[in-house]
Every structure is written in structure tokens, then in C-alpha cells.
Design brief:
Blueprint lengths: L11 E6 L5 H16 L4 E3 L4 E3 L1 E7 L2 E5 L14 E8 L4 E6 L7 H10 L5 E6 L1 H9 L4 E2 L8 H11 L5 E5 L5 E6 L2 H16 L1
Parallel strand pairs: 1-7, 9-10
Antiparallel strand pairs: 2-3, 4-5, 4-8, 5-6, 6-7, 8-11, 10-11
Helix pairs in contact: 2-4
Length: 202
């Protein structure tokens, strides 16, 4: 890979540092993260030392839990590695969060998906070159190649792409290897990723 545009926070931050989250706050999300990490859909590019992959789940109407920035390299996460997004302003490119670590660099995209449809309860963002290439080759749902990750343009494009859907999966054509799933619960979002693995890797 010649250049990795990943892991850099591009949004404006309003961050309040707090103590580590308690296990009951993040355990359901961590169960799915572990599965995806074992499949190497979450991890770190070894030569560049840049992490990839982030997961989130809605806590209530405007708050969601998300993995922290640059946590992809860890096989297991604990309360020091998760944070809570408490608000966002898409026009201002702003994420408000509180926790022991900054939110993932893709937090703005997650926030836009949650705001788009209150029935969406989980958003998973993974990386896998073979799956990503296959989705684009088969012309499956995807954002345009000229739209970079972590930007207002990406968040807007995602909203247009998902329309009224409450679950689905799409590739980020302008974010190499990036794939996003969303669903009405964690299992729905996770199974969509596993179905891609079964379809294109097995």
C-alpha cells in the first residue's frame, strides 16, 4: 500500500477527559470487536503503525459508544479504549465526546448515520482489501472515490447512500479497504460483515 489515509482525526474536537468506562458499558460491543479482530478486519498496518477499524453502538437518542482513536492494534480493549460521543454538528465538522480517549477518526461518519435514522443502533467500520475490491467490482453500494474518510463530505454522502435503510453495508471507494455496516442491533451489523466474508473469501 503506497499511502494510507487513515487514523488521522479530521473533525473539530470538543473533548472532556474522564475516567475509564465500566465493563457493562462496552462489553456487548467488545464481543463483536473481538470477532472482527480475529478475522483481521480490525488491526494495524505494521509498517506504518496506523490502526484501522472502529465500532460503535447507540446508547440513547443522541449518544453513542465508540472505540477510541488508534486502538486497532489491541487484541482486546478495556475501559481505557472506549469513549462516548455526546453530540455533533455536521455543518461545523464537530464531535463532542467524553471518555479516557479521543473518539475514532471516523466518529463523524458514525454520528451522521445515527442522526439519519433513529432505528439504527450499531455502526461497524472494518478494513479488508479483498472484500473492498470485490464490492467495487460487483458494483455493490459504495461512496464515490473522490470523497475522503472522516469529512463532512463523507458524512453527507453516507446519508444520501443509506436513504431510508435501517440496515446495510457499503464500501468507501475513496477510503482504501474501508467497509461500513449498520443495523438495528449489533448482531445485524456484524452479520452483514460476516456475510461478505462468506461470499467473497470462502
Amino acid at each position: 500500500m503506497s499511502e494510507i489515509d487513515d487514523g488521522v482525526i479530521k473533525y473539530q474536537r470538543d473533548f472532556t477527559k474522564t475516567e475509564a468506562l465500566k465493563p457493562d458499558q462496552y462489553r456487548p460491543l467488545e464481543c463483536w470487536r473481538k470477532k472482527l479482530y480475529q478475522l483481521k478486519l480490525i488491526g494495524e498496518y505494521p509498517s506504518e503503525k496506523i490502526g484501522y477499524g472502529n465500532l460503535s453502538m447507540r446508547l440513547h437518542e443522541h449518544h453513542f459508544l465508540i472505540t477510541g482513536t488508534q486502538t486497532g492494534k489491541h487484541p482486546d480493549l478495556n475501559g481505557e479504549h472506549y469513549t462516548i460521543v455526546t453530540g455533533h454538528d455536521l455543518k461545523m465538522n464537530l464531535i463532542k465526546a467524553s471518555g479516557p480517549i479521543d473518539a475514532s477518526s471516523e466518529a463523524l461518519t458514525h454520528a451522521a448515520i445515527y442522526a439519519h435514522n433513529q432505528k439504527i443502533q450499531a455502526v461497524f467500520h472494518v478494513h479488508e482489501k479483498l472484500l473492498w475490491n470485490a464490492m467495487l467490482e460487483h458494483n455493490l453500494a459504495h461512496t464515490q472515490k473522490d470523497i475522503p474518510y472522516g469529512t463532512v463530505a463523507m458524512a453527507t454522502a453516507v446519508n444520501e447512500l443509506i436513504a431510508d435503510d435501517t440496515c446495510g453495508v457499503f464500501a468507501m471507494a475513496g477510503h482504501e479497504d474501508g467497509i461500513v455496516s449498520f443495523g438495528k442491533n449489533l448482531d445485524e451489523a456484524g452479520e452483514l460483515i460476516l456475510e461478505l466474508v462468506k461470499r467473497f473469501k470462502n
